[in-house]
Design goal:
Length: about 425
């Protein structure tokens, strides 16, 4: 059994390759774990409709791709600790292949599952979400630098990115189960239906093929990659940045696939600061994964990885004015309204609203992070909590900066077009 979580792809997929090499029959399993859809103490869903919709699309597309390889995807609505043992019995499964996860909730699920299953079942787990594989980085985890630049420079100098793994070959037809499993609807998950907003900067669908299409558009069809460094702080439209984060977050595409495609682009079209900068950003993504691996549950603590003893407010009215986009700051409001209506916010927007939340409103940064977790289509636990800690001054920013939101609005939204788009009723 290949137990899929944040590795929803058929290319560059270590678990599938290893499972196929076992010479046994192969089945894939994915659980829409009900605990991911509950309502948090702040009255929003842990996973909101935008990300859930994207996830459903990703799983449905993956199911089609796996079926083409004669592999069935079991789609379950029970927690994995309940669902997997049942299927292990029914299908006489002896081995489970999975991508390693190391955050609190994911660890606990795996621990409980192992405790429930017969000791005979063998688990094969491996890291499959990094750009630089943990075995290839030039540090012991304990010595991982707390400053990004040190990490990046050492990795660039002393590590290499592994090649993309090939797609697995077709399994025999009798590998397939007779039953085809249905993905849930939003309503099944207790979530409201959503419409795509006409001004969404992320009007894309989930799934590996869609990721590939986006990459082809951004790299090969439009050459936008050649201008990425100049446009990446944009706020409007679909092409100011790669928009690959959502597919990366659930593993529909791997960072190695993107990296090697950038290298091809550099050979065939152009190599410049922009092409390098996309790799630079992928290294940021890796960095937050390594920070979470090193510091474990501290990334969820109020004092963060620095164990800072700041005073934080939790006043409901302040939290809600931020969520609803009714603060005194039109730039913050516009970004929050965009997030609420589309499930997307630019990097520039995220930095500003997070800084405003933690450093102007002085609110417990974890509530802001939990709201991002609920709303963002591209939520990734390491990037989200890592960036929130960074902005809140309890993480890896050696300078502990605070954003001047008004100045930022003047600089990045000169003329106020972005703010007008989302703040239809706000005067400024
Ligand atoms: C408070 C806050 C919360 C965030 N939460 C998330 C999150 O939940 N999920 C997420 O993927 N990103 C998160 N980011 C990082 C960043 O904003 C997004 O990765 C980026 O906006 C996604 O758009 P893109 O794919 O077009 O990025 P591009 O600019 O095209 O960058 C390419 C890729 O590099 C990676 N990347 C870029 N910037 C960062 C960064 N600062 N940290 C980590 N990786 C980065 C992403 O994988 C991204 O897809 C957060 C940033 C902040 C400030």
């Amino acid at each position: 059994m290949v137990w899929l979580r944040n590795d929803l792809r058929i290319y560059d997929q270590q678990s599938l390759i290893l499972a196929k090499q076992s010479g046994l029959k192969v089945v894939a399993y994915y659980s829409f774990d009900p605990r991911h859809y509950y309502i948090t103490p702040w009255d929003f869903h842990k996973t909101g409709s935008f990300r859930a919709q994207f996830l459903i699309e990703s799983v449905v597309e993956l199911q089609r791709s796996l079926t083409d390889l004669n592999i069935s995807l079991i789609i379950d609505n029970r927690p994995p600790e309940e669902g997997i043992p049942d299927w292990v019995d029914r299908l006489n499964i002896s081995q489970i292949f999975l991508q390693k996860e190391w955050t609190q909730e994911e660890r606990l699920v795996e621990h409980n599952l192992r405790a429930t299953l017969d000791k005979e079942i063998e688990f094969y787990s491996h890291y499959d979400q990094f750009l630089f594989h943990p075995k290839d980085i030039p540090f012991e985890l304990n010595d991982l630098p707390e400053v990004f630049t040190l990490f990046r420079k050492q990795c660039e100098k002393r590590s290499t990115v592994r090649k993309v793994l090939p797609e697995i070959t077709l399994m025999p037809k009798d590998n397939r189960l007779e039953h085809t499993f249905q993905a849930p609807t939003l309503a099944d998950l207790g979530l409201e239906k959503i419409e795509q907003h006409p001004n969404s900067a992320f009007p894309f669908k989930g799934g590996g093929e869609q990721a590939k299409r986006r990459l082809d558009h951004y790299f090969w069809d439009t050459n936008k990659l050649s201008y990425y460094k100049q446009t990446r702080n944009g706020l409007l439209g679909i092409d100011y940045s790669s928009k690959l984060s959502a597919w990366l977050a659930n593993g529909s595409i791997s960072p190695r696939q993107i990296y090697w495609e950038i290298i091809d682009y550099e050979k065939e079209v152009k190599k410049n600061q922009s092409t390098y900068w996309l790799i630079f950003e992928l290294i940021w993504r890796d960095y937050f994964k390594y920070i979470a691996l090193k510091h474990q549950d501290a990334i969820f603590h109020l004092g963060g990885i620095l164990n800072k003893d700041y005073h934080w407010d939790t006043a409901d009215t302040k939290v809600h004015s931020w969520i609803e986009g009714t603060t005194r700051e039109p730039f913050v409001n516009a970004n929050m309204i965009e997030l609420n209506k589309t499930g997307w916010m630019s990097n520039r927007g995220r930095q500003n609203v997070a800084s405003y939340f933690a450093k102007d409103l002085l609110l417990d940064w974890r509530i802001g992070a939990a709201y991002f977790e609920s709303q963002l289509i591209d939520h990734d636990v390491h990037s989200n909590y890592g960036n929130w800690m960074y902005v809140a001054g309890v993480g890896n920013d050696p300078r502990d900066r605070k954003f001047n939101v008004r100045f930022q609005a003047e600089r990045y939204d000169e003329g106020g077009k972005f703010q007008r788009l989302w703040n239809q009723n706000t005067l400024f």
